[in-house]
Amino acid sequence: MSLSIAVRVAVVYLGGPGHTERHAVAVAMGAERAGAQVLLLDIGRPGAWWADLERADAIVFGCPAAAGAAAVRMPSFQQFMDDSAKLPCAAFRWRGKVAAGVAGADARPATLAHLAAFAARHGMRWVEHDHVHTRPAVSRAAAPTVPGAAAPTPAELRASERLGARIVETARAGMTQRAIAA
């Protein structure tokens, strides 16, 4: 018996002067190629996207890596995180959903660690990004993402596309297991 399960992926990111949007779009492309329905949501723009996030099977968080942990405390992203905790039954809304994160190359580990902790507070299943470091570590650590910073390399964007596909595979596998168990 073959199950064809539709997967909905929301890529919610904070756009702006950095390159987070390019990574978010690459994740969306990878997820679409894997057969998912994808919704790109820039939380820096006004919108009513909570219902969209609730309907998603997987949520990818994109945040500038401007200063590592400080990036997720940028007013728009911090407001998003705070607001998510205020949703009715917030502790259960996203439980079991697949989650992942993308960020620019600068200070990426610290930013992704904060995004993973945020997802864990919601009971989400985190999918790791297969980072591609094509720049010297010193420049990544020393230079925050600012306008004019080095654009993501093709290898970094391909890694984000692979992440999109892996998110779909992970969500579909979990949905298939639940369907078989039911």
Description:
The chain is of the alpha/beta class. It has one domain (8-181): Rossmann fold, CATH 3.40.50. Helices cover 46% and strands 13% of the residues. The protein contains seven helices and five strands. It has helices at 20-33, 50-55, 75-85, 90-93, 108-121, 137-142, 154-181; strands at 8-13, 37-42, 58-62, 98-102, 125-126. The chain has a five-stranded parallel β-sheet. Mean pLDDT is 78; it is low at 134-147.
Chart the SSEs and their pairings:
Layout: E1 8-13, H1 20-33, E2 37-42, H2 50-55, E3 58-62, H3 75-85, H4 90-93, E4 98-102, H5 108-121, E5 125-126, H6 137-142, H7 154-181
Parallel strand pairs: 1-2, 1-3, 3-4, 4-5
Give structural attributes.
7 helices, globular, five-stranded parallel β-sheet, Rossmann fold, alpha/beta, 13% strand
Mean pLDDT: 78
Shape: globular
> What is the topology, as strand order, of the major beta sheet?
2-1-3-4-5
Q: What count of structural domains? A: 1
Number of helices: 7
Low-confidence segments, ≥5 residues, pLDDT <50?
A: 134-147
Query: What letter string, H or E per element, gives the SSE order?
Result: EHEHEHHEHEHH
Instruction: Indicate the structural class.
Output: alpha/beta
Roughly how many Å is the radius of gyration? 16 Å
Q: CATH topology, which one?
A: Rossmann fold
What is the CATH architecture assignment? 3-Layer(aba) Sandwich
What would CATH call the homologous superfamily?
Flavodoxin domain
Quaternary state reads single chain
How much helix, percentage-wise, in residues? 40-55%
The fraction of residues in strands falls at 5-15%
CATH C-level label? Alpha Beta
Largest beta sheet, briefly? 5 strands, parallel
- Strand elements, count: 5
Terminal Cα separation, in Å? 15 Å
